[in-house]
């Protein structure tokens, strides 16, 4: 069995896109906005969650997450730390992330 559903599109890539799309829906932003350089609060929060889930729950390296989100790996380290801080102090943010952990 081949790991490709469509030629050139690995299964892993499809699940990453699904995760980013789902996080985007929860935060009312698009996947394109999450990968863009914008610094709007909702977009940055969604980007934090994507970085956190990919790094901590999917065990992707910060370098790989950075390539997915069009960011430098050091930015991913910062986003993950920020997400962890928000999860520990903001109940609403914690609830949103908890609902997404099962992706």
Describe this structure in words.
It is a single chain. By secondary structure, the protein is mainly alpha-helical. The protein has a single domain, classed as Chromosomal Replication Initiator Protein Dnaa, Chain: A. The protein is 72% helix and 5% strand. It is built from six helices and two strands; from the N terminus they run ββαααααα. It has helices spanning 11-27, 31-35, 41-57, 62-69, 73-89, 91-100; strands at residues 4-6, 9-10. The chain has a two-stranded antiparallel ribbon with strand order 1-2. Helix 4 packs across helix 5 and helix 5 packs across helix 6 (91-100). The longest helix is centred in the first third of the chain and has 17 residues, at 11-27. The two termini are 24 Å apart. Mean pLDDT is 88; it is low at 1-9.
Task: Assign the CATH topology.
Answer: Chromosomal Replication Initiator Protein Dnaa, Chain: A
Radius of gyration based on Cα positions: 13 Å
Q: How many helices?
A: 6
What gap, in angstroms, lies between the N and C termini? 24 Å
Query: What share of residues are in beta strands?
Result: under 5%
List the helices and strands and how they pair.
Layout: E1 4-6, E2 9-10, H1 11-27, H2 31-35, H3 41-57, H4 62-69, H5 73-89, H6 91-100
Antiparallel strand pairs: 1-2
Produce a short descriptive summary:
By secondary structure, the chain is mainly α. 72% of the residues lie in helices and 5% in strands.
List key phrases describing it:
single chain, 103 residues, mainly alpha, 6 helices, disordered N terminus
